[in-house]
Amino acid sequence: MMVDATALRAAFARRLSAMYGTEVPAYTTLVEVAQEVNREVLDRMGADAERLGSIGRVTAERHGAIRVGTPRELAQVARIFGAMGMYPVGFYDLREAASSSVPVVSTAFRPVDAGELAANPFRVFTSMLVTGDRRFFGEDLRRRLEAFLDARRLFPPRLLELADRAEAEGGLDDAAAEEFLTLATRSFELSREPVSRGWYAELERVSAVAADIGGVPSTHVNHLTPRVLDIDALYARMSGRGITMIDAIQGPPRWSGPDLLLRQTSFRALAEPRLFREDDGRVVEDDLRVRFGEVEARGIAVTPAGRALYDELAAALDDALAGRRVDAEERNAVAAALWEARVPGTEAELAARDLAYFTFHAAKDRPAGAPPAGLAELLAGGWVSARPIVYEDFLPRSAAGIFQSNLTSDGAKDVTEAGADLGPEELAGVLGRTLHDPYELYAAIRAESLARAREELGLPGEVG
Length: 464
Fold this sequence. Notes:
Blueprint: E1 2-4, H1 5-23, H2 25-45, H3 55-60, E2 62-68, H4 71-82, E3 87-93, H5 94-97, E4 104-110, H6 114-119, E5 123-129, H7 139-151, H8 157-169, E6 171-173, H9 174-187, E7 195-196, H10 197-206, H11 208-214, E8 223-226, H12 231-240, E9 262-267, E10 272-277, E11 283-288, E12 293-298, H13 304-321, H14 328-342, H15 347-352, E13 358-362, H16 375-380, E14 384-388, H17 396-405, H18 424-431, H19 438-456
Parallel strand pairs: 2-5, 7-10
Antiparallel strand pairs: 1-6, 2-8, 3-4, 4-5, 9-12, 10-11, 13-14
Helix pairs in contact: 1-2, 1-9, 2-12, 4-8, 8-9, 10-11, 13-14
GO molecular function: dioxygenase activity
Cofactor: Fe(2+)
EC number: 1.13.11.93
């Protein structure tokens, strides 16, 4: 029997979740609390709670985060996720988004087809160290770091062989699928191999993220994120259970209008026992704080115009709070007031102003007679209904905020040095495959749905 990419992805997400729960027990608590909150929201809101995805999808939904050190390692990751129907979407430069030292660029591997997203939207935010950026790594350190990274092997050849076969053939037979899933899960387990104390500490002085990537002989899951329908309730409940959360929820504020984009928070990185090799050769046990428990609430995907408005409001919030010390609640109140003044308060207004993405569907109980040609008239007249498209991607500033909130130190960044040019085109070259633009993906899903609705109404394909 053939195990296709969808089944491989769903099985891998389950196995990774079970593994991570064993390694980080507080993650299991996070998942339990998220499911409690989701049940309560479903009981309270009924069908409206599932407007941005069925409760089955939301319950199964996870996003993981991993970090690699070299273009070779990132290209191998792309092959492994490609076997599971997950493709690179978006470009995130955390070097610029973070105020502390985070010398990485990132993409997210995820499904791109609407049906595949509905079946299982597992996504992995994947960061690559930019060793050539002189703001972080001087020439001597860069040379030694690249030598260390070039010498290690994160993924066994057999895993890559199976990944290539699965992607080429659309899946694997049962035995090969089991071997693939076992090897893939094992590759992201926390290693028990000793870490060189001196080497790790040298990198940590530059960046805790750089040390987590380049100071260890393997990679691992940094966090695995469940989805919750009310992140404010979850934040309060986790704190009530005595789990230390980061200071604030990242992303848009809590406000009276539709949920947009992505809100994220996490519990703080926990001290985990690790083996260290001292300079004199002794192996001792100590701890590291690099892994944390993130949770997210997903909203509606926004158009480029909607994203521009979001960025304007984020800048306005920074200006409004400049020089002030405020707590998370006051910050949210200021942000919410800005949103109330500038952001449409209904889905209909968001659609009418082309600020967010929706799918369109011919109404079952539509009016009699000939339908109008224009989309606005079709919506207003009840000929067509609009359903929001879930935001499947990430916000660089929010990702940087989560990273920063869990760093042991801010590290060091020499702003007098020139940064390394590494943008979307260069990253696509590293990956050896298309780097998808998320806006184009959302727009294609919207256009396909509108074409179907117009066909059902007997209208020509062009919107009048």
